[in-house]
Amino acid sequence: MSQASTSPAGAGQATIIDGKAFAEKLRGGVARQVDALKARHGITPGLAVVLVGEDAASQVYVRSKSKKTTEVGMQSFQHTLPVETGEDELLDLVRRLNSDPQVHGILVQLPLPKHIDSEKVIDTIDPAKDVDGFHVVNAGRIATGALDRAMIPCTPRGCQMLLQDQLGDMSGKRAVIVGRSNIVGKPMAQLLLAENCTVTIAHSRTRDIAAECRDADIVVAAVGKPEFVRGDWIKPGATVIDVGINRLEPEEPGGKGRLVGDVAFDEAKQVAGAITPVPGGVGPMTIAVLLANTVTAACRQAGVEEPAR
Ligand SMILES: Nc1nc(=O)c2c([nH]1)NC[C@@H]1CN(c3ccc(C(=O)N[C@@H](CCC(=O)O)C(=O)O)cc3)C=[N+]21
Ligand SMILES: [Mg+2]
To answer: In this structure, are 135 and 47 located in the same domain?
Structure first.
């Protein structure tokens, strides 16, 4: 029996997975790769981030991405367009970035305003520059097991790295992913299949999500509902990865509002073997993998071997 299941109630024995520290290390490795690319090949990887509209939360993320991009020595190109920008105009910008040799990675911040077809925008990005891994070509490569030629979506890849670090070999483990989005749930399932897990995707029509989770050695919560996964859904000793980032209503007027995940953390940490916190878990990994993907993209585009991380 695991430590967690034998400890007194309220002891909170789960290992708290430090995604922030892991991401910092990963960014350090990316910075060394960038140095090597500059020295050996005169290549400076470049990442273009496109934001349409003035959503406050999106602006914060985009600023943070840009800062971390320059911190690892890469070039950051930021394009902020007014909310009323037409689809054609955005597609034109994407095409210009596709043919710009200084730009190796393109990220169009989602969600886009309603009048823009985001699928069309994503599928206009050159798959080789699609550092989000959202293009249908990259989704197809991942689904067919051609992972070495794909761009892998940042959040699922970050979760996989944390799981590999925590568990090592995942062969035969039961993994339940709560949520079936194209951005997280589906690619996460593919990556865990590639790890030889037995994978279940649970979603809003699943008959008994709690029962599915109770069978799982690994639970990945990616539904976008605050504290949706409860502590008594978790098998003692299981590893819990919380992808959710939900800002709760401020408790006092003018307050900032607490950030919570898709897992009821205080409950789940009493039962789990290991769990990611929010903030400081998966979020920082997403950005670190984005930078790593940009290096990978730059190397492939230049036809040079990727330096060791
Ligand atoms: N094309 C596209 N690609 C994305 O990858 C993408 C996107 N659109 N739209 C928005 C979401 C959200 N996202 C986050 C990345 C990092 C943190 C992150 O670093 N969070 C920190 C701090 C959170 C905070 O304090 O607000 C943490 O969890 O510790 C959060 C959220 C990427 N997204
Ligand atoms: Mg769903």
So the answer is: yes
